[in-house]
Amino acid sequence: MTFISILFALLFEQLKPLRADNPIYAQIQALANKIEASFNAGKVAHGRLGWWIVVGSLTIPTALIYWLCLRLSPFAAFAWNVVIVYLTLGFRRYSHYFTSIQLALSAGDEDAARRHLADWIHRDTSDLDVSEISRLAVERSLIATHRNVFGVFFWFLMPVGPACAVMYRVAEYLAHAWTEPEHMKNEEFGVYAAKVFYWIDWVPARLTAVAFAIVGNFEDAVYSWRNYADRWSDEAVGIILSAGGGALGLRLGEPEEKAMVLQADATAVDVDSLELESQPGSEATPRALQSVVGLVWRALLLWMLLLALLSFSVWV
């Protein structure tokens, strides 16, 4: 049932993609903002309580409805699975940004590409050149694909799959909603949300990196993963981008400044040369965006093949 549920949800999303500003997501964001406003008193314990309230209020009803559907009929449980996977997956949710950037760069319209990228990553892009626009688009697409697709796949395979999928997506949202905004960066309230998502995403992030390595340049992906993943402050992001960059043969990410200082102290060589050494591969170009599309689709097909084999083994 798991494989068929995901397959139907992917087909529905191809026909009718769920936009990022849909009413259901808006309600979840409103709930998270309300809990943060009510419980944020500047302590980690308050963030822990707020996290469990938000996650519990969404996952427990999902699990109860799934249990009720199982009691009623396997078809009811299947329908509920498809609905939840459709709502939690986001294979095409942000693809319009990526496609717009790709088309703008292909047409030589750098200003339009900067505008689309700024709308996507919510930062100033006015001083970026074509290579930097391409690199950021590639990085964003790899991370978005992991968190909106492959991470959901993994948790949907767990017992009470629909509730676990909801838990993953809500935890992912809280991890950045309660830590990344300017007014939350120095708050302890979001520390728990970030830590718990680190563990929730620990296995899925590595499975995504493995998938990129298998369907891309395996040797370069593994080499980059082993040697350069720790250059990023976010471990999961470092693993995905280093493996994805190696699989594509691209130089992705910006190594952390503290790592560069440590290397400079250890080797007493020029920092600029270290930066080049620490990011192997070629510079990203507009052509790289098409390579990313191919990598993501191959990784998706690999996941679906593994799910199909797992489902077949269970039936047999």
Automatic annotation (TrEMBL):
Topology of the protein relative to the lipid bilayer: Multi-pass membrane protein
Q: Mind telling me what this protein is named?
A: Cobalamin biosynthesis protein CobD
Give the protein's function: Converts cobyric acid to cobinamide by the addition of aminopropanol on the F carboxylic group.
- Keyword Transmembrane in the entry? The reply is yes
Q: Which family does it belong to?
A: Belongs to the CobD/CbiB family.
Per its UniProt entry, which superkingdom is the organism in?
Bacteria
Keyword annotations from UniProtKB, A to Z: Cell membrane, Cobalamin biosynthesis, Membrane, Transmembrane, Transmembrane helix
The principal location of this protein is membrane
Q: Which residues cross the membrane?
A: 49-68, 75-94, 149-168, 295-315
Q: Where in the cell is it found?
A: Cell membrane
InterPro entries per UniProt: Cobalamin_biosynth_CobD/CbiB
This protein's pathway reads:
Cofactor biosynthesis; adenosylcobalamin biosynthesis
